[in-house]
Automatic annotation (TrEMBL):
Its main location: cytoplasm. Pfam families: HHH_5, RuvA_C, RuvA_N. GO terms for molecular function: ATP binding; four-way junction DNA binding; four-way junction helicase activity. It is found in: Cytoplasm. This is Holliday junction branch migration complex subunit RuvA. Coiled coil: none annotated. SUPFAM superfamilies: DNA helicase RuvA subunit, C-terminal domain, Nucleic acid-binding proteins, RuvA domain 2-like. Residues 72-91, 107-126 form the Helix-hairpin-helix DNA-binding motif class domain.
Length: 202
């Protein structure tokens, strides 16, 4: 199992990144949110999951260990393959997925391309008792927004990776945090873009 890779970003594609580590370029399939944090030539760490098939070995890369663990959990649900699991994490954060499963919110789960009502029901049925294994569940009735520590850490690390000082990254997070009160469904990529805009205006 390849749990993570660290090194310089050698190449970026629409759905993948190549990270050079130990003289070897490892290609990892990544969500748009993860790719948004990467820049060619800059050092990065991707948390990874290796999916083994009879005819292929495919590495999937994530911005956080939490995303990777939830990806692996989703794969245990009947009918959920790697592409669908990655699509779910591209549309919803792990905390949003936890809350949707815990509260049996099929409407939220059906936002993911490829998941219909029956598929959402199956995911809830099979994973509801397992979600505590990868993190705390939001209290019933809590808004489905990225967990504070999760989104803040991802945005801050992304900004630092782009060359901003840690104090500037934290200040940008402070400025965009009120956006979640107005738009609870904002994901990490949108928050990242907003943080970059606040830094650009300085």
């Amino acid at each position: 199992m390849i749990a993570q890779v660290s090194g310089n970003v050698a190449a970026l594609g629409p759905t993948s990144a190549v990270v050079e580590t130990g003289g070897v370029g490892l290609l990892a399939l990544c969500s748009p949110g993860t790719l948004a944090h990467l820049r060619i030539g800059q050092r990065t760490t991707l948390f990874t999951a290796l999916v083994v098939r009879e005819d292929s070995l495919t590495l999937f890369g994530f911005a956080s260990a939490d995303e990777r663990e939830f990806f692996e959990l989703l794969l245990t649900a009947t009918g959920v393959g790697p592409k669908l699991a990655q699509a779910a994490l591209a549309v919803l954060s792990p905390d949003e997925l936890r809350h949707a499963i815990a509260t049996e919110n099929l409407v939220v789960l059906c936002k993911v391309p490829g998941i219909g009502r029956k598929g959402a029901q199956r995911i809830v049925l099979e994973l509801k008792d397992k979600i505590n294994a990868v993190g705390l569940v939001a209290e019933p009735g809590a808004p489905t927004l990225p967990g504070h520590a999760v989104w803040r850490n991802q945005v801050a690390q992304g900004l630092i990776g782009l060359g901003w000082a840690p104090k500037d990254a934290e200040a940008a997070c402070d400025e965009v945090e009120p956006m979640l009160a107005e738009q609870p469904d904002l994901g990490v990529p949108a928050l990242m873009r907003a943080a970059l805009l606040t830094l650009a205006r300085r």
